[in-house]
Design brief:
single chain; Multidrug efflux transporter AcrB transmembrane fold; Alpha-Beta Plaits; four-stranded antiparallel sheet
Length: about 300
């Protein structure tokens, strides 16, 4: 299936505009992260107060969440225990003591659900689910996985430039998505981390598909200049890129608007990330290979510089 029959867009000609766009997005992300002293981590990373209680009859989680927000306690992390009509409410470390917090919750819920009283079972301080040791392990896992991608792509394409460009585009997508969460003051939870890892996999896969087409054309059209060949490859895969990205984007929009509060941030991270990842594949990763390759090897330089 083809979205465009015979596209002939000059992607390399406009690459500097998209370099500038990415530079602006990265700068905004850095400023926001510096101003907020890093991402707004959830209770999974910071620790906080846990309140567990139950109702006599089942209560929808959305109503509990709305009630808690209405009494000025936004940002709660809720977990349902349906078999006991119980709910676990977690709050990040704050100014309120755990006893004051539990009394506020109890009063607010019982005022809202008059005929279905909420009873507290336990109130305790909980440490972060993600400790320093796990953070270090995750950091090294990410670094080693990126190194593995560089080595694999470098071996496959017989040039380390391709691997580094692919990883830089991947890092670009993830970092700007983190910056988006910082600008909008959204919490970075374990589900958001899962979304970022999913985005990384999507981004590098999308990039390698186009790199593969360029490699095929490099073998079949040896007489063409690198700029013509790269534009040809991008145009040949354009329909596939648009259809794949649009399909994924449509599914993510459905999850974002109809998936509920539990997976809202997961869907939001992927929805934003897929848009950034799709444009970075076309206008960042591949043009980066072109610029890097032409600077290193005079054979690839066009007669007229674009």
């Amino acid at each position: 299936m083809e979205f465009f029959k015979t596209p002939n867009f000059d992607f390399l000609k406009v690459r500097h505009y998209f370099y500038a766009l990415s530079g602006v997005l990265a700068a905004v992300s850095i400023v926001s992260l510096v101003m907020h002293r890093g991402p707004n981590f959830s209770i999974d990373f910071t620790g906080g107060t846990l309140i567990q209680g139950f109702f006599a009859n089942p209560v929808p989680m959305d109503e509990i969440r709305q009630t808690i927000a209405s009494i000025g306690l936004e940002g709660a992390d809720l977990q349902s225990v349906p078999e006991h009509n119980a709910v676990i409410i977690r709050f990040k470390r704050g100014d309120k003591a755990k006893d004051e917090l539990s009394n506020t919750i109890l009063e607010g819920l019982n005022k809202r659900f008059v005929d279905n009283k909420f009873q507290i079972e336990r109130v305790e301080f909980v440490g972060p689910a993600v400790g320093q040791h796990l953070v270090k392990q995750a950091f090294w896992a990410i670094i080693l996985s990126m190194l593995g991608i560089v080595l694999y792509v470098a071996f496959r394409f017989k040039n380390w430039i391709w691997g580094v460009s692919g990883v830089l585009a991947l890092a670009h997508d993830v970092f700007i998505t983190v910056g988006f969460f910082s600008v909008t003051n959204k919490e970075v939870s374990l589900t958001v981390i899962a979304a970022l890892l999913t985005l990384a996999g999507y981004s590098i896969n999308d990039t390698i598909v186009i790199f593969d087409r360029i490699r095929e054309n490099l073998r079949a059209r040896r007489k063409e200049s690198l700029d013509v060949l790269i534009n040809r490859s991008l145009n040949e895969t354009l329909s596939r890129t648009i259809i794949t990205s649009f399909t994924v984007f449509t599914v993510l929009l459905s999850l974002l608007f109809f998936g509920g509060q539990v997976i809202h941030d997961f869907s939001l991270a992927l929805t934003f990330g897929v848009v950034v990842g799709s444009y970075s594949t076309l206008f960042i990763a591949t043009p980066m290979v072109y610029d890097w390759q032409t600077r290193r090897d005079a054979r690839y330089r066009p007669a007229v510089k674009k």
